[in-house]
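EI: anyone free to look at a 155-residue chain?
SC: sure, send it
EI:
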Amino acid sequence: MELNLLIAYLGIAIMVGLAGIGSAYGVTIAGNAAIGGLKKDSKIFGNALVLTALPGTQGLYGFAGFYMCQNMFNLLTPATTAIQAATVFGAGLACGLACLFSGIRQGQVCANGIAGIAQGHSYLFGNTLVLAVFPELYAIVSVALVYMAGSAVAA
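SC: here you go
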């Protein structure tokens, strides 16, 4: 029984950890571009702030997955079965990896938008927001996977 719980919590740790790392990388990628852009045009701070914060959402998805497994589906108890533990581990790994890469790539999209805005292309703010949603979609889909997997094996 304890091994099952260990495996399940390892999946949760991977999910929350990788999602947080993706957010940290994405935010710093966009933040570096914001600092560079502010050197060129200090009036872009508001737009740069919004675009810099956008990749931070992936970390929240990791916590949402933990909440689902812990509170909605009650999968993290001493009574966790082997199949439930394997499901939590697999879903956690999938969600963590999706959020990791989504956060990094979204940060790169936002960084390019910030650089363009700093060069005087103010119309790029809205365009960048729209394009930055595409990497976000995969993080959202991975949270949906956690939900579907958790509901499939819930007691």
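EI: The radius of gyration is 18 Å.
SC: 👍
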